[in-house]
Amino acid sequence: MESDWLHLFLPIVGVEAFWPGILLLGFSAGIIGGCFGGGSWLVVPGLNILGVPVLFSVGTGAAFIAGKRIISSYNLASFGAIDRKPALALFCGSVAGIEGGAALLAALDQAGLGEPVLRWAYAFVFFASACSVLFGLFPVRSENPDDKYFASLLSPFFKRLGAIGFDSALLIPFIIGSTFGFLLGFLGIGGGFLRLTLFTGIWGGLSANVANTHILESIISSLYAAFAFTVKGGVEVLILFMLVLSAAVGDRIGVVAIRHSNSHPMRIGLGLVMLCGMMSVVLMELNRAVPAVVLMLSSLGCFSLCIILGMIAGVIRDSRKEKGIWNG
Q1: Which of 50, 72, 247, 324 is 20 to 30 Å from 79 by CA-CA measure?
Q2: Rounded distance, CA 49 to CA 306, Å?
Q3: How far is Cα 200 from Cα 86, in angstroms, rounded to an integer?
């Protein structure tokens, strides 16, 4: 066939995949991560829509999160001060959650329910995330999150636990780690932004220790998830290589774009991409593979192109302002 060169045989998975779609997927995830943080939630459903089986989609997505987090934090010369006990509790919770989520996914896949459950779960994730972004339930990027709100909701619960002998300083990070570890093992979702918001809310602010502890532990736990799925044979190295390289390029573009562009239309575009992702997942579950692939790749392509054009226009505008020749 004339289009054979567009499909790449994946030796570990044993199927052929549309390699330009994989590159676009990683590139778009990198742009979203550079602009807003996150973006890894796009990888697992995207790979599954492109024909990668569910276990390999989640395993490769978990390994991608590890690589992306390392790339995003490469400019940190050191992590500075960390709180060792909360970091250890976070890691132990993450390990328990990752193993539990991976075991549940494997059991569902063995029963023939892995792909339907994963797709409907991601349809809900896309819909909830789109509502969050479009209607402003949570800010896309906030310098002053409403920490007191989280603290007021959770403090009575943890005070009661402390009264009956539980050490809340260790229990809280263990619960957070196990919850998001389960999501990482089951859905391949890192949840870094939401986890950091929750973490800082409980402690009442984003101190250097909290941020450093979160960054270091998130890298270690995602590396563990990558190792665990690799041992289980659930990581396609060729896909991972393509995703990480394209995401590294997209991440740099996203970082520059958010500095020189208006974030409001970018936020609207992100919400629309999430809605298109939800519809693509549903179409895939309804055995409409071609429309699902077309909708997903076209929405990602349009979004990425708009971000790049907005970045270029913003850089030109800001450079003219600096030179004093801007008239509009």
Answers
A1: 247
A2: 23
A3: 13
> Which pTM value belongs to this model?
0.79
Nearest to 87 by CA among 226, 199, 229: 199
Give the E-state strand segments of 66-217 in sequence order: none
Query: Are the C-beta atoms of residues 93 and 174 closer than 8 Å to each other?
Result: yes
Task: State CA 224 to chain mean position distance.
Answer: 16
SS (H, E, C) 200-257: HHHHCCCCHHHHHHHHHHHHHHHHHHHHHHHHCCCCCHHHHHHHHHHHHHHHHHHHHH
pLDDT in tens, the chain (328 residues): 445 778 888 888 888 888 999 999 999 998 988 887 777 788 999 999 998 888 888 989 888 888 777 766 654 444 455 567 777 888 888 889 999 998 998 899 888 888 899 999 999 988 988 887 777 644 444 444 444 444 455 555 555 555 554 555 677 778 888 888 898 888 888 776 566 656 655 554 445 566 666 677 777 888 888 888 888 888 888 999 999 999 989 988 988 888 887 777 888 888 899 999 999 999 999 999 899 999 999 999 999 999 999 889 888 888 877 776 655 5
